[in-house]
Amino acid sequence: MTNTMIVFSIAVYMILMIVIGVRVSKRNKNTDDYYLGGRKLGPFVTAMSAEASDMSSWLLMGLPGVALATGIADAFWTAVGLAVGTYVNWLIIAKRLRIYSEANKSATIPDFFSNRFRDKSGALLAISAIVIIVFFVPYTGSGFAAVGKLFNSLFGVDYHVALIVGAAVIVAYTVIGGFLAASTSDFVQSIIMTFALFVVVMFGIENAGGITNVYENVKDLPGYLSLNATFADGASKDYGLLSIVSTLAWGLGYFGMPHVLLRFMAIEDRQKLKLSRRIASVWVVISMAAAIFIGVIGFSFVKNNGIQLDDPERVLIVISKSIAQLDTFAAMLAGIILAGILAATMSTADSQLLAASSSMSENIVRRFFFKNISDKASMIVARCTVALIAVVAVIFAWDPDSSVFGIVSFAWAGFGAAFGPVVLCALFWKRMNRWGALAGMVAGGAMVVIWEYVITPYGAANGISALTIYELLPAFLTALAAIIIVSLVTPAPSKEIVEEFEEVKKTFKAK
Questions:
Q1: How many CB atoms within 10 Å of residue 19?
Q2: Per-residue pLDDT tens for 397-442?
Q3: Residue 448 in contact with residue 474, Cβ under 8 Å?
Q4: For 383, which of 215, 393, 399, 481 is 20 to 30 Å away at the CA?
Q5: Which residues of 458-488 are buried (b: 16+ CB within 10 A; e: fewer)?
Q6: What is the mean pLDDT of the chain?
């Protein structure tokens, strides 16, 4: 009966996602509707869909797992970096990008780069689209893999069967409803994720014997409750300033996340972005705090119940299974909690899938191969591209032992470094030109790869901690330097580009 109720709850959730896709599909008249929802998102959907698509299963599995295994330092500073990055992104990027992208008629991030610098060669469009595809296809695959692993762990379902079914549901509502379906479903998924966090915290505290007992179980663990040390192998390990700065650098990634930036471009009323910012910032802080607390509670939960937990990231699944054993109603609650993990994964995968497909269909296929196709034909190409990219993502995820969170970390750094500095400079620096933008993208993306696969291994082998920091920070700074230097040594932007920049600046200040 327990498994039946869990399956029922998850099945209802997945059917709901497809229903949402069918309901909103009628609003898609052209590719602008399909990829930006006709710029008609409300403030609540904008805020919650942006954050749900950002957090992924990392919120419900990765962050609690880190806190349980190593204490609060690593999880806390990561959360601080992400919280600050979220707020600053909404504060300085959202409104200006909304105004600028509408002014130069951009429906995707590559469109914005190309139109911002009047790049008739197509180089900016092609390179930025390739960056999105290169990083998002395996990123989407990691989301599909998480779905497969969840069902395999819970019910013993064959990993590959679960992988295909989960991917099929995500593809179904994304293909049918496009951006509006993804955003609306992400809004629903953020509610389910919030509910899951709340229920697990309450049950975990009660099962652990109260807050006092939770504290008693971890207070004497060396480094566990410290902000400058971590708990490792029964001892305290230094977590110094360099580690803190490196971890805080996660926040820089927000400036370059295409699936988050698209939400800024899609809001109906830019005057309501302030409300969206407040909603998003509050939700992010509360949800990450709850996720870290679940990790701390999980330590007591595992200890009190004599559970052997080989993978700390499974702590929420373990707690959910315990809830399901209480009674039929509790089993339904457990099903909703597990659907929350599924929601966290799906809310990211659908947005990544759409961003990657828009780059392929709009910025490569339509720009370089079929320039004059009708809106109806373009919609067919868009939907076929979503399905094609999903198939490739499934191939990436086919190995059940493939890393999920390693891919997420690497892709986050890739987008943050390749796009983040370009977005910031494009919005705020009048002197920037297309050569600077190209240099920034190439330098940022390349440095992520070089730092991860060459410099970090060298630093680790030779005990040079400064060379083992998160690759996003050095890559971001490298891209920023490349943009500034190349822009200054190449011709200034044209009068038309400068006038548009000044007009956007004037509009921003006036409203």
A1: 14
A2: 777 765 555 667 777 888 899 999 999 999 999 999 999 999 999 9
A3: no
A4: 399
A5: ebeeeeeeebbbbbbbbbbbbbbebbbebbe
A6: 79
CA–CA separation, 311 vs 447, rounded Å?
32
Q: What per-residue confidence (pLDDT) applies to 350?
A: 64
| Alpha-carbon distances of 406 from 62, 371, 459, rounded to whole Å | 11, 38, 19
What letter represents residue 324's amino acid? A
CA distances from 443 to 114, 135, 217 (A): 18, 15, 47
Nearest to 16 by CA among 184, 163, 235: 184
CA–CA dist 43, 35 (Å, integer): 18
CB of 425 within 8 A of CB of 481? no
CA distances 305 to 197, 204, 295, 298, 310, Å, are: 20, 11, 15, 10, 15
- Three-class secondary structure assignment of 226-295: CCCEEEECCEEEECCHHHHHHHHHHHHHHHHCHHHHHHHHHECCHHHHHHHHHHHHHHHHHHHHHHHHHH
Helix (H) or strand (E) holding 419: helix 405-428
443 and 501 Cβ atoms separated by less than 8 Å: no
Higher pLDDT, 511 or 158: 158
Pairwise CA distance, residues 415 & 336, whole Å: 32
DSSP bridge partners of 143? none
Rounded (5°) CA angle 446-450-452: 120
Q: 3-state DSSP helix/strand/coil percent for the chain, to nearest 5?
A: 80, 0, 15
Half-sphere exposure of 42 (CA within 13 A, CB side): 4
Distance CA 175, CA 186 (A): 15
Tokens of 68: 């349980």
Look-up of token digits 């600050």: 84
Closest CA to 32 of 136, 159, 178: 178
DSSP state of 312: G
Please enumerate in sequence order all residues whose Cβ is within 8 A of that of 36, keeping only pairs 6 or more positions apart, or say none.
107, 179, 262, 265, 266
Instruction: Tell me the pLDDT tens digit for each residue of 438-455.
Output: 999 999 999 998 998 899
| Spatial distance between the Cα atoms of 252 and 470, rounded to a whole number of angstroms | 11
- Distance separating the N- and C-terminal Cα atoms of the chain: 57
pLDDT (tens digit per residue) in 68-104? 888 888 889 999 999 999 999 999 998 899 889 888 8
Q: Summarize pLDDT for 452-503 with one digit per residue, the tens.
A: 889 988 888 888 878 888 899 999 999 999 999 999 999 999 999 999 999 9
**Residues 480 and 436: beta-carbon distance below 8 Å:** no
pLDDT at 23: 65
Q: Is 343 helix (H, G, I), strand (E, B) or coil?
A: helix
Q: What's the confidence (pLDDT) of residue 37?
A: 52
